[in-house]
Amino acid sequence: MPSVSLTVNGQPHSVEVEGRTLLVELLREKLRLTGTHVGCDTSQCGACVVHIDGESVKACTILAVQADGGSVTTIEGLASPDGGLHPMQEAFREYHALQCGFCTPGMVMSAIDLVEKHPQGMSEHEIREGLEGNLCRCTGYHNIVKAIAAAQEVMHGRRDTLAPAEA
Amino acid sequence: MYDFLYHKPSTVSEAVALLADPEVRPISGGQTLLPALKHRLDRPSALVDLSGIAELRGIRRQGDRIVIGAMTRHAEIQRDPSLNAAIPALARMAGLLGDPQVRNRGTMGGSLANNDPAADYPSAALALGATLVTDRRRIEADDYFLGMFTTALEPGELLTAIEFPVPEKAGYAKMRNPASRYVMTGVFVARGPMGVRVVVNGAGPGVFRQAEMEAALSANWSPEAVASIRQSSDGLNGDIHGSAEYRAHLVTVMAKRAVLDAG
Ligand SMILES: Cc1cc2nc3c(=O)[nH]c(=O)nc-3n(C[C@H](O)[C@H](O)[C@H](O)COP(=O)(O)OP(=O)(O)OC[C@H]3O[C@@H](n4cnc5c(N)ncnc54)[C@H](O)[C@@H]3O)c2cc1C
Ligand code: FES
Ligand code: FES
């Protein structure tokens, strides 16, 4: 069986896998990081999005062996060790950007990559286009877009703290 | 998915040697191959990952051509400064394909090897008069696309690069399926060393040139020149997403928008 060596949320791992093992299976079943979800079998919903070397990818559409040597970040790796939330997680909480929460880990991971790729900031329209690979069946996206718009201000250093949501 | 062996060579010759076995397949971005394998549409004995072959990556200008390595990802094509300067319509096409996560993995070579009737790049390659370079020969786009999921590639032949002559003008417009984001009907227009070309994707079983629109745009490069030209629906795709007649109608609409996009 092939062996894969990779870093997940800063921790090095060496794991035996099959050729066909998907990265999401390695994360969920071997490393028990079940924050990364599987919502479809067609590479369309984005519930499984993680970062490999800083790029967002669908973990259900990459083999574990293809991630060999890479550095993977999952939703579990965002908060600081003392439990302080990443600004994007905080924004999702403040803006009530979730209902059932199934799509949320993938949304947050996609949103962080999106914000990092747009240092000049994004309009509401650009945020919506950037979320094309993530489906949410609950929220209607409205509060997700608001949360990302607020988080980008903190992530780009234009505000020290998150703008509070209107009551 | 059935299990398979996995190889990651670092040179084209090693990859081609492995691909001599008819049960072995190359994998580039995996954004088409892995969904197909999950559905057990194929059962390869081994996959050959092309991502470790440095010479298959990257975009460079070579005289009056832009050369794109087969393993270059959509996101790199979308952002590349030399391509954005030389053929902005092609860079924009890469940026409107799939979604950001598909673009971070999928490659131009994988898309052109697959030749999905609903894919984007085949229209650009044919309209721009591209040359498809493989491990053993050079194939002109005119001779490469042989219809639905079929190309001139032989079993085991590896696409290594795609060369695009820089056009004077080029533009693209498509109507996307709102759920899958694949192309329902698209039109790529170009004017350059190969004359004026109008290529339709998504509407038929494979990409095809629209001769009447090419003649009209050669005489008068403007959206009005194609506005009254009707595409016949004979042989076009009809499915749950749209009838052949609807796709035929879209050809004219997309052709007008593509000319506007080209400027
Ligand atoms: C949700 C989703 C939306 C998408 N939307 C679009 C869209 O709007 N437009 C569009 O055009 N595409 C779309 N795609 C497809 C995407 O562009 C794929 O990346 C592309 O079609 C295949 O490229 P790949 O690198 O992933 O190839 P792979 O999946 O790795 O390979 C595809 C096929 O080509 C073969 N192959 C790969 N590389 C080579 C090579 N160098 N030489 C010879 N054979 C090779 C493989 O063996 C396989 O048969 C979408 C995909 C998904 C999952
Ligand atoms: S589970 Fe990966 S895209 Fe749906
Ligand atoms: S919150 Fe339920 S799917 Fe998005």
Automatic annotation (TrEMBL), chain A:
Keywords: 2Fe-2S, Iron, Iron-sulfur, Metal-binding, Oxidoreductase. Transmembrane segments: none annotated. CDD domains: fer2. It holds the Pfam family Fer2_2. GO terms for molecular function: 2 iron, 2 sulfur cluster binding; anaerobic carbon-monoxide dehydrogenase activity; metal ion binding. Coiled coil: none annotated. This is Carbon-monoxide dehydrogenase small subunit. It comes from Muricoccus pecuniae. The lineage of its organism: Bacteria, Pseudomonadati, Pseudomonadota, Alphaproteobacteria, Acetobacterales.
UniProtKB/TrEMBL annotation, chain B:
The keyword Glycoprotein does not apply. Pfam families: FAD_binding_5. Its EC number is 1.2.7.4. It is an enzyme of class 1 (oxidoreductase). Residues 1-169 form the FAD-binding PCMH-type domain. GO terms for molecular function: anaerobic carbon-monoxide dehydrogenase activity; FAD binding. InterPro entries: CO_DH_flav_C, CO_DH_flav_C_dom_sf, Diverse_Substr_Oxidored, FAD-bd_PCMH, FAD-bd_PCMH-like_sf, FAD-bd_PCMH_sub1, FAD-bd_PCMH_sub2, Mopterin_DH_FAD-bd. Keywords: FAD, Flavoprotein, Oxidoreductase. The keyword Repeat does not apply. PANTHER family: XANTHINE DEHYDROGENASE SUBUNIT C-RELATED. This is Carbon-monoxide dehydrogenase medium subunit.
